[in-house]
Amino acid sequence: MNLFSNSKQNLLPCDGELYLFENFIPPGEAKPIYEQLLKEINWQQYQIRMFGKMINQPRLTAWYGEENIAYSYSGLNLNALPFTPLLEKLRTKIEENFQTNLNSVLLNLYRNEKDSMGWHADDEKELGSSPIIASLSFGSTRKFLLKHKLDKALKLAINLTPGSLILMKGTMQHHWLHAIPKTTIKCDSRINLTYRKILF
Which of 47, 112, 113, 195 could lock onto 134 through a cystine, CB 3.0 to 4.6 A? Predict the structure, then answer.
């Protein structure tokens, strides 16, 4: 079934598109997927350059995709590992529901409430001018923040629950920044899979 047939509402008031699909992965399936990803993904903690210094990313990451897919961000140059059967299965489910083609996935592991993702836009040249990014969440619920680049009054906060999917598309990456902040509320780990298409 095409989930867009449910007439999902665009959550952004302007300048792009953002859709939330809760229980995209049913609750009974979300937990075993989370546990499998924890065990089988080749998690790494890379260093990135910030303010002229090399620091550890405040989370673990992994990069998977089709053959010869490379990705560069924050001074990192990553070559994709081959899709695992599970990552391939999840990719197919997303592609069939949203009629899109995705050739890679960046995974993030937030180990606890101290891990985070700073304000950024997914606007690397490899993604093209108006990328479609499908982001799946497993494990603990974390807050997803958005703010408009120019109109500081435009802000949004979404709780990303296990099995939920957000779809970012259109001109969103041109006009909005997003982040996963640290929290003072103790929580277990969360895994985030951001499927995308790298252009050659």
Answer: 195
What is the CA 80 to chain-centroid distance, rounded?
Answer: 16
Domain count, the chain: 1
How confident is the model over 128-172, as pLDDT tens digits? 999 999 999 999 999 999 999 999 999 999 999 999 999 999 999
C-alpha 13 chain-centroid distance: 21
Beta bridge partners of 192: 108, 137
pTM confidence score = 0.91
Give tens-digit pLDDT for 6-22: 458 999 999 999 999 99
Distance CA 97, CA 94 (A): 5
- DSSP assignment letter at 185: S
List % helix, strand, coil for the chain (3-state, nearest 5): 20, 40, 40
Structural domain for 170, as ranges:
8-196
Question: How many Å apart are CA 85 and CA 118, to the nearest integer?
Answer: 30
Give domain status of residue 1, yes or no.
Answer: no
